[in-house]
Amino acid sequence: MPAGRAARVRAGGGALLVVGDVVTDVVARHRGPLAPGTDTVASVRRVPGGAGANVACWAARSARSGGGEVRMLGRVGADSAAWHERELAVHGVRPLLVVDGTAPTGTVICLVDEEAAGERTFLTDSGASLRLEPGDWSEALLDGVARLHLSGYPLFSDSGRAFVAAALKSARARGVPVSLDPASAGFLAGLGSDRFLALVEGVDVLLPSRDEACLLTGLSDPAEAAAALSRDIALVVVTCGARGALLARSGEVRARVPAVTARARDTTGAGDAFTGAFLAALLSGADEGDALREGCRAGARAVEVVGGRPPRPADGPRSSGAPEPAAPPG
Known about the structure:
By secondary structure, the protein is of the alpha/beta class. It is built from nine helices and 13 strands.
């Protein structure tokens, strides 16, 4: 799809539209501290990623039994657009990707320490993923959509903030509920809490991590942070890693769910898995407590695999795990 043109979809029923980042992850798994100035032995893989795209894939995995459609809108470079479309489709996601004619697909290098419970550090080149703009949006994108979910990454660029404002305006006009996850504590700190909260006014569900919730409120306790945020946002769900997740409404924590035991290999995408499964459960008619439990189960499954996506479906097409080179011009 040419840059600047809005993706269009036919009307469907009860779909989840996810909007956000689609990137290529380079996952380097090593044991122990990095050795500055010399070699550190690592296992390196290139896999599809992006917080928004990961959420869509986990939501589609959770929604298979319920039959709800999941769509993904994001911006990628021409260098790997076809590969990312195929990788989304493999997981049952309908790709609605805008191809940027100038910037390459974003790339994230994920450094995963296998001796620290799979904890990871990201080196991020956002590339095309932060170049969403209002021209990429159309009200037709909401045809047949039961929920709009926004990854927070578009909020970290001027054009992305304008895009989000247009999407929120359309959703409010149509009565489509909107959920949002802040996406990055590092980028959030740069944007500022007050500015972020002003930009997401009108969102129905906020899904921050523990660190993001505490950063947004200045509170050190995630339960207190969730309660504080829920005074202005209808539903706040905070993921707390090994401590599970909690949910707050109207200034009070209403539910807590423990984490599911898992053997962590790579924590990349655990929060995305939680979000995708939680939203899919809500759309299927589950109550909030059951949706929390579904989210925790998906988060546990996510840390047991490398990368931020679910295991590939057994009947899906095979992939080399790396983007195919772009065809030469002409």
